[in-house]
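Review form for a predicted model. The reviewer records the input and the model, then writes brief findings.
Reviewer: anonymous (R2)
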Amino acid sequence: MAFTDLVKFNKHKTTFIFIGGKGGVGKTTVSAATALWCARMDKKTLVISTDPAHSLGDSFERKIRHTPTPIVHNLEAIEIDPDKAMDEYKDKIQIQQQYNDALNMFSEQMDMMSSSPGIDEIASFDKFMQYMNTDDYDVIIFDTAPTGHTLRLLSFPEMMDSWVGRLIKARKKLGAAANKLKNIIPFMGSDDENEQSMAELEDMKKEIIEARDVLTDSSRTTFKTVLIPEEMSIIESSRAMDALAKSNIKADGVIVNKIQPDNNHCDFCKARREIQEKRLDTIRAEFEGQIIAEIPLQAHEVRGIDQLYEICDILYGSDPSNGPIAL
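Model under review:
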């Protein structure tokens, strides 16, 4: 099986590909190269950077905005701006604050207050859900933050489902008490306002469940790990794979980046290669059963469309006719 076989497009439904791994292993390069290949396969493609320290624009050598930015034919890119995501999320922030203020009056609800996720995280996740719950693209590739942040992002549907569910439950419990207090507490609002707020919370919960269903649907969503042939990268990647499995997210490919080429004329290069060969044996044993692709260490920094196409060709081949068939 070739690495191209791991990318399966779906008719009328978006395919989602997450590219993750430890910081500094080349996730953005692989994400950008994968996006270029999908676009070359004549698929409408979007690549999204969810890392607050964006480097996607640097890779493409283009200024990428918070909204879809054209890169090449069939390919657009986004770098999520947390501040702009917050601005877009103002109405929902007001809903959360309204209920938080109300619940703060009831000591038995304080545990829910302390478990509430941060507003900035919710705003970014709301932007993430916006694209998870759409079929406007054939494929969406997520260039993710380093492993820990990514695992938290992918666990957000469970966290948010639980939190919003508790918020709805608590609001229902308030019921009569809210009606009695609304004349003396300004933020309690009218019956119509409270019903609207409840409806919006219910809609939020529905969107979260839909995003979770998509994430755990292996026919639509897969996770590909980028690592380098070093022990710490292997250990972190293995732990991430275990965490993804527990969240029912399919991890089906491993990309080993920055492999030292053979060079018998350089003692240092030869020694590095020998160490990496041992690490590659470890990788093949640790990730047995998964497709493993290898990218050699480049003599230059990979930046710009032309150089990204070189990585694209290493990973997926240069002949589009060898690509996957739409399901």
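Findings: Residues 105-116, 183-189, 322-327 have pLDDT under 50 and may be disordered.
Further findings: The longest strand covers residues 251-259.
Recommendation: see findings above.
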